[in-house]
Amino acid sequence: MRAHVGDRIVLAAEHIDEPTRDGEVLEVRGADGGPPFVVRWADGHTGLIYPGPGSVLHLGAADDTAAAPAAAPAAPAAATEHEPTQHLREWQVRVSLLEAGDDTSATVVLVADPPDRISAKGSSHRSADDTADRRIGDEVAVARALRHLADQLIGDAEHDIEERTGEEAHVRTT
Q1: In 42-160, at which residue ranges do the beta strands (DSSP E only) sit?
Q2: pTM
């Protein structure tokens, strides 16, 4: 991960029930833009970090009007107002599994920008007649959790559409 002063960093929580953290890179102490970074978090605290898995770096200003990364190609001179503007965002889903006897529980957390955290749960139960195969229980529990997460995202999108248009919205899922 390479950063510059003013870049925005979003960190996934270390544990499922903790919030996602969001901050601005104030200082880059590593060679060639590498870590560690001094970051001022949204809550006002400042700290030194070495970003790990679950970290997302947004190049440019630390606000919602962030500029495109310097490496992004410039728009052609002949571009018109009818051509779409491209914006890259990266969302990650963290999955935690817990097995207890014949039961498997999955918790999924969407790490997105802004750093609002959306999570969902799913579970599976192995019957006494089933062969003990952890993978099957994991697959079923995670699939159910992801389906619940998808339902939440669709519900949020419908709510946002309704707020902007003042009309009832139903988003097709196919």
Answers
A1: 46-49, 55-58, 92-100, 103-111, 117-125
A2: 0.55
Please answer whether residues 50 and 39 qualify as being in contact, where contact means their C-beta atoms are separated by less than 8 angstroms: no
Closest CA to 49 of 57, 39, 59: 39
Task: Tell me the per-residue pLDDT of 10-24, one tens digit each, with 9 for 90 and over.
Answer: 776 666 666 677 888
Distance CA 24, CA 165 (A): 33
Helix (H) and strand (E) counts for the chain? 1, 8
Contact 6, 33 (CB under 8 A): no
For residue 14 the two structure tokens come to 């270390």
Instruction: Say if CB 19 and CB 116 are below 8 A apart.
Output: no
